[in-house]
Amino acid sequence: MHEVSLCRKLLEIINDQAKLKHFSQVKSVTLEIGALSCIDKSSLAFSFQALSTNTAAHQAKLKFIDIPATAYCPQCDEDTTAQQYFSHCPQCHGALIKYRGGDDLKVSSLEVS
Amino acid sequence: MCGKCGCHEESSAIEIDLNTSLYASNNTIARENRIRFEAHNTFCINLLSGPGSGKTTFLVKTIEDLKRDYSIAVIEGDQQTDNDAQRIRSTGIPAIQINTGPICHLEANMIRDAMDSMKNKLPDLLFVENVGNLVCPASFDLGEKTKTVLLSITEGEDKPIKYPDMFRRADVIIINKIDLLPYLDFDLNRCMEYIERVNPTALVFITSAKTGEGMQQWYEFLATSHEYMAGVPA
């Protein structure tokens, strides 16, 4: 629930790129959002829309790629992917433990003109 | 339609690959903080919990019992007021208050700025009392050596599974206010099972900052961790 802080950082990154690569308009921003990142997409989009006014990213579309976490099944002795905490193994339906990854929010790419 | 000349030609767009975490700038500063702490043999504890769980009382008790053996300082994080910093200062040790305003968590740059104001007089033990919030502070590395999450038994035994992100990231979990156990329907065994489920490797201490029960084990952890950091045999 800190979408505003993260949007500020996103706009800093976009602003730095605009100076470096000399573009004036961002058409879209592709974000990789981890399944365990505690980020709400609609809150992020709302914050981005509010904060990007009068910037190169004004009216840019946000595109999301979902990144799962990794978790371990002790019954199968194997890692698998998980979309949330307290998930179950797709093979044996046992409870998964040792969740890791899936907690980042990355700007993957920008489409600019 | 082109906003400049009104034509309907599709403007050519180019793609710029970035692959950059939005936490990157925070993590860079956190790493620098961590290096600075290690250079000064400062053991930094990021103390996290929901609001009203007793973090400040727990810290005051810890400080009163350890201040003769260690130099200690506290960085306090709250949206407003310096009430908590004042409570810490009344023990005779320095406290820096950070008011985060609308921001619900501390970030690494705030800790860096607080350290700068200490003018390189970094203590043996530096406690960062984070903003009372069981969600957002978990995501922001401050450069600490340990994330310690405090849970008071008045909050209910299922907090670890209700807030798995915070409890999963904890190195240490403290179950506090245990003196109130006879007056509550708190299931301690169930709480330990929930902790085991989200974080089987966390160290768990069961304490009462009011009576002192269980605090000795917490102090031994601090002592061992600080001495390990400073390269001195425990």
Task: Characterise the protein shown here.
The complex is a heterodimer of chains A (113) and B (234). By secondary structure, chain A is of the alpha+beta class. Chain A has helices spanning 3-21, 41-51; strands spanning 26-34, 61-67, 69-73, 78-82, 97-100, 105-112. In chain A, the strands form 2 sheets. A 3-stranded mixed beta sheet of chain A has the order 2-1-6, with no helix packed on it. In chain A, strands 4-3-5 form a 3-stranded antiparallel beta sheet, with no helix packed on it. In chain A, helix 1 (3-21) packs across helix 2. The longest helix of chain A is centred in the first third of the chain and has 19 residues, at 3-21. Chain A is elongated and about 55 Å long. The mean pLDDT of chain B is 91. Chain B is α/β, with parallel strands linked by helices and 234 residues long. Chain B has helices at residues 24-39, 55-66, 83-89, 108-117, 159-162, 164-168, 188-198, 215-230, and strands spanning 14-21, 43-48, 72-78, 95-99, 125-129, 146-152, 172-176, 203-206. Chains A and B meet through helix 1, strand 5 and strand 6 of A and strand 1 and helix 6 of B. Strand 6 of chain A pairs antiparallel with strand 1 of chain B, so a sheet runs across the interface.
